[in-house]
Write a structure and sequence with these properties.
The protein is an alpha+beta fold and about 300 residues long. It folds into two domains: about 190 residues, Regulatory protein AraC (Jelly Rolls), CATH 2.60.120.280; about 110 residues, Orthogonal Bundle (Arc Repressor Mutant, subunit A). The chain is globular.
Length: about 300
Amino acid sequence: MSQLLLRLTVTSTVYCLSDMSSPWGFRVAARPSPAFHLLTAGTAWLEVDCDPEGVRLQAGDLVVLPRGDGHQLRDRKGSRVVWLDDILAGTPPVNGRLKHGGDGERAELICGGFVIDQLTGRPLLEALPQVIHLRGHEGRAPEWLSGLIRMISVEMASSGPGTEAVVSRLTDALLAQALRAHLLAAGRADSSPVGDTQVARALRLIRDRPEERWSVPKLAAAVGLSRSAFAERFRSATGETPMQNLTRYRLSQAANYLLNSDAAVGEIARRTGYDSDASISKAFRRRYGISPGAYRKTAGKDAMAG
């Protein structure tokens, strides 16, 4: 993970300060790059596609959606939601600040998206959960985050020469720090971000032995659950089926081997649970849109250029 984090490069950032007054709500379409929202005042309700429960946000909270899943934010459940692109078209931000909503309680957000190098950044992002939620304390963001936000705000307000470049570097640091904080927290929690102990055991089995011929019944038996109970609890805890999680992890590991080793594609297939060059190439292309050989060649050129 540390090596992958070093390879994560932000090439540009979309960034906006948002003043929202109740009732308010906006929806963001799914995109292939990470998105983030920092709530600096008030409260909000985050709902992410495939997760009907939602997350309540307090002032000082930061959420990062590593894979840019579609989502919506609003002051409370039931409030009308409008596509963010429609809001921006109807009331463009002034000096980087967007105002929207009614006449009720106010919330302030810093919202943005990162454009990253997909080849070098994707293996890390694919290994992360759907949502990273870093909680503030008593309405304040963590000190490292507060410092970054202050610097970003100063640059945004100045609009001087080089502002865009400086903001891009600062938001690069914002993403790296957020991911590092999440990884450290996950490490302290026995390397699993989920609270279900038996699901966490299954995740460790997948990560420790991706080459195993895992099936849902086999994983369920390994953690002492029936097939149906295991499948239901796994989806509830991770937002994925066991096989979806297994495939995603195997291919992220394959991408890592391609970037950081000289192992042949056939050897990588064996290490990650695939029968042959052909089977891993088919799965890799379906997920990443590129063959393993082309991925290795392109990523190698990018590394030399960097």
